[in-house]
Structure formats: C-alpha cells, structure tokens
Amino acid sequence: MAKDKYFASHMVHCRGVTLDHMNPITSGCFPCHKVSLSRLPGEMADFDQDAKEEVDLLLAQSMTALSVQERQVEQEDLHGVRPQLSEDTEMIQRLVDELDIHLNRLKAGTAYGEAEATDSAYTKGIDFRLMFLRCNKYDPQASAAHIIKFMDVKLKLFGKTKLVQDITLRDLGEDDREVVRNGHLQVLRACDRSGRRIILEYPALRSFKTLTNELRARFYICMEVAKSPEAQRKGVVMVSYGVGTLRERLRGIGFVEISKVALSVPLHFAGIHLATDNLRHYVLLKGALAITPAKLRTRFKLHHGSHMECQYRLTTYGIPREILPLTEGDEAILEYHLSWYNSRLLGEGSDGYVRWADSSIDQINEPRLLDVLFGKRINRDGGNRTLRSHIQALSTEYECANKTRKLEMAEQVINDIQSSGGRFLVQEDVIRDDTTFTTWRFLRLDE
C-alpha cells in the first residue's frame, strides 16, 4: 500500500500534479386505482400476479402489433445500436423549410403562434428547431406537432413572459428548485454503453408542495438534457428505480400530468426501464399503460425482483451497476446530483444565461465517470478506480525502475486516462451570495 501511494505521488509529481490529496473514494409513478382492502393475503397475491401477467401481455401485444421492420427499429433503438443519420447543411435547410410549412398550418390560436408573434427569432432559431427535428428522427410533420405541444405545456407551466426564453433555475420558484434539488430525478454523470444520457428517478424521494412544483422541476431537468446535440441525436434512457427503500410512496399522484410534460419536451426516450420489487406496482402500472401511446409502450421494460436481480437486468441493456448512484447497501447517493444542481445555480447570471464570474478559473459544470477527482468526499468509482488499477499493476516494476523509466511510466498512466476521456479535476468550493457551492476545475500543473 505504501509503495502504491509512493508511486502515485511520484507519477503525478512528474507532471506537476499532487495526488497525495486525492481521496479516492418517466416516471415510476402511476395513477391511483382502487384496490379492495377486504381481500385476504392469498387473494391479494393472486390479484397482483394476475396484474403482472396482464401488463406483460399488454407490452408483448404492443410489440407484436408492429411490422417486422418497425420491430427491428424499436429494438435497435432500445439497445442503442440504431445508426444515426448524418446531417449536412442542405438537408437541414430542406427539413427546416418543411417544418415551417407544417407550423404555419397548425399555429393559429396556439401558444406557438403567440410565441412567434412575440419573438420570431426565438421560435425560428435553428438550434430550437433542430432539437425537435432530431428528437423526431427528422420528420418535419411530427416535429411541428411536437413544437405545438411543447409551447402549450410551457405556457401552462411558466406563463406568457417565459414562452420565448430558455427556462433557468432562477425562473423557478423556491419550492420548484427544492424539487430539482431533492434528487428524486437526476441526470447521471455517466452514459449507458451506447453513449446515451440517463435520467434516473428514485420514486421514494418524490416530494413537493404542489404538483405544479414537480412539473416545473421535471421540465427544467429534461430541457437541461435536451440542450445537448448528442442527446438530441442519440436519445436518452429513463430509469425509474423503485426497489427496497426506494419504492414509490405517493401512489402515482400526477401521472397523467407528468406524462404530458415528458411527451412535450424535445427528448427521444429510447428506453424506459421500471425496476421494482413490489408486484402491487403492476396493478397501478396496468392503468398507466392503458393511457400510454401504443408506440411508446414498446420502449417500456419492466424489471421485477431484488436489487441484485433488477441491477443485473439493467446491465443487459447497457446500464451497469457502477453508474447507479447507490451505496453498497443500495441507498440513494445524492452527492453528484447536488454538485450538478449547485453548478447550475452558481453559473446562472442575473440575466439567466449560464456563465462563470472568473473565466480564468476554467470551472467544470459536472465531472464525467472517467474523470480522476481530487477533493473531499470523492466517490471511489470511475476514473479514481482506473487510476488505482494502473498504480497497482505497475507498482512492482516502478519500484525497481530508474528515474527515466519512472517518468515514462507516469506519463503512460496519465496519457491512458486522458485518451480514454478522463480528466484530472479538483473539487472547489465557491462562495456566492453567502452560499457555498461545490464545483470543479482542471488540475493545474503547478499544484
């Protein structure tokens, strides 16, 4: 252990870095259905099992109703192997022109029509329109209908004054921000094995003063993900993890309203995974699926069982256990989510745009899974684990090597981490308005 630490210290010293300070360390909610409490335990178990079989049958029928070609597309999408369409300027311009034709036919009397009259530069902006075209696989007609729906939902949630503005944390009320902060809905630091962003829900952490607080929070989080061109092209994966102490507690309050928000944002949900250890949830899910669009049902995957069983099934869809923010005892970890939240709150200027007060600091909004992190209370996974593996593998050779070889070995390890996408980041506390926020910056060579 001592020689590993010595090697680590020397390795980074050759690059001016000190590792001695390293401390390596959508919803799953369903509508309420009245279930007779007069059933005996045995009858209730049979009732739950029947509901599970009905749900499984409904999902199977949704898939078999598709043509062979449609079924193949859905399966490729679910597993992240569907080829992406390459974009060029001519193609994009043609699609935008077609989109404009469809929008002109639909906009009369809609929130979109009002938004266009207020600020056409916003509604006709190429980035805004590309979000919807990519989400709808470059279908202008579907994209136009999606934009109309999006603006209607945005108007109801935020009012006319925000129709032609991107929603920031500072546009949310205090109770809305608390819902964002509580961690029941998180954007994971790591992607699945196909490189798609993962939105994770812990149903047990749902908490709000009014349902509108949660709807605004969900809208904001989803739109933060939708800003990424990569997420627009690849789609995202939704995981609702309600196993053990993380089970749903609110019995599906607001499912219909939450579904409307999810279907309005410009995100393509390529896979929706619901993990639970409670058969009773199938009783609720049966009603939820009945009001879910048939094509969307084909992307639902239900995983019933213990933590180990559900996590194993998620790995078969490219979502490994190590990227889920769970302790060894399978309790929720909120550390990264709070860092994600604080970085956005800290980075938003008075006009709502995200910026850093001191550009020389080179701060990072959120670390990636492969990054090597330095600071207090750092998670042991990801890049830190990779660094330790390199150190342990080379420590014996390093002990016997001369100075030149030691420098080469250290350079090799650093290059390996960087070539795999990892960065060396330092945790840093920044004070703003008497509040301390945790953020990240690149490690400087003179530290």
Secondary-structure-derived class: alpha/beta
* Separation, N- and C-terminal Cα atoms: 24 Å
Low-confidence runs of at least 5 consecutive residues:
1-45, 349-362
Count of alpha and pi helical runs: 18
Record the strand order, biggest sheet: 1-2-3-4-5
Described by the principal axes of the CA atoms, the overall outline is: globular
Q: State the major sheet.
A: 5 strands, mixed
User: Portion of residues in helices?
Assistant: 40-55%
* Average pLDDT, all residues: 79
**Proportion of beta-strand residues:** 5-15%
Oligomer: single chain
| Strand segment count | 9
Fold topology:
Layout: H1 2-13, H2 41-64, H3 68-79, H4 89-106, H5 111-118, H6 120-123, H7 126-135, H8 140-158, H9 174-181, E1 185-187, E2 197-201, H10 211-226, H11 229-234, E3 236-242, H12 255-264, E4 269-276, H13 280-290, H14 294-297, E5 300-304, H15 307-315, H16 335-347, E6 363-364, E7 372-374, H17 383-400, H18 403-419, E8 424-432, E9 435-442
Parallel strand pairs: 2-3, 3-4, 4-5, 7-8
Antiparallel strand pairs: 1-2, 6-9, 8-9
Briefly summarize what is shown.
The chain has 447 residues and is of the alpha/beta class.
Structure description:
This protein has 447 residues and is an alpha/beta fold. The protein is 49% helix and 11% strand. It starts with a helix and ends in a 5-residue tail after the last strand. Residues 1-45 and 349-362 have low confidence and may be disordered. Helix 1 crosses helix 17. Strands 1-2-3-4-5 form a five-stranded mixed β-sheet.
